[in-house]
Design goal:
Pfam families: FlbT. InterPro entries: Flagellum_FlbT. Keywords: Bacterial flagellum biogenesis, Cell projection, Cilium, Flagellum, Repressor, RNA-binding. This is Flagellar biosynthesis repressor FlbT. The protein is an alpha+beta fold. The chain has 2 domains: 61 residues, no CATH class; 83 residues. Helix content is 44%, strand content 19%. Strands 4-1-6 form a 3-stranded antiparallel β-sheet, with no helix packed on it. It has a 3-stranded antiparallel β-sheet with strand order 3-2-5, with no helix packed on it. Helix 2 packs antiparallel against helix 3 and helix 3 packs antiparallel against helix 4. The longest helix is centred in the middle third of the chain and has 21 residues. The radius of gyration is 16 Å and the shape is globular. It starts with a strand and ends with a strand. The relative contact order is 0.19.
Length: 156
């Protein structure tokens, strides 16, 4: 069995299976079972969902790490927002990335959906000439440095 080890600093935030956790001191935790989680700058607060692509990211985030009651609504909101975005955009690449993101989300792989949504957010920022959102970044792969947070995957 594989475990995922996360090293988090004081003040870091993590959401696991819908439950927000803020770390009061530097800690190292081990996830020994499958869990839906995001941490640090991967988490978008509701007030940051100010553009169409950011609202899609937030809806997919809710479908991924929301409570059991919130996840279905997050997926439905993502479907609607993605459909609206696809109709409004002239970018075939953005439409395709969103089609794939929705496919991942509907297959219960919201982690991959969020990575694609983040790419669409960057595209939107460039097209609209707006500053990048500093509170989100694509989810890291196990073993990839997250700056303040370190991930390692251990075979157990």
């Amino acid at each position: 069995m594989s475990t995922l080890v996360l090293e988090l600093r004081q003040g870091d935030m993590m959401v696991v299976n819908g439950a927000p956790i803020r770390f009061r001191n530097r800690t190292r935790i081990e996830l020994a079972a499958k869990a839906r989680f995001l941490f640090g700058k991967q988490i978008m607060p509701p007030e940051a969902a100010t553009t169409p692509a950011r609202r899609i990211y937030f809806a997919l985030q809710t479908a991924y790490i929301g409570t059991d009651e919130e996840r279905a609504g997050g997926l439905q909101a993502a479907r609607t927002l993605i459909g609206d975005f696809q109709q409004a955009t002239t970018s075939a690449l953005a439409r395709e990335m969103l089609r794939q993101a929705l496919g991942f989300a509907e297959a219960d792989d919201c982690y991959q959906a969020l990575k694609l949504a983040r790419r669409v957010m960057r595209h939107e920022e460039e097209v609209l000439g707006i500053a990048p959102l500093a509170t989100t970044r694509p989810p890291a792969q196990p073993g990839q440095s997250e700056g303040r947070t370190t991930l390692t995957l251990n075979a157990g």
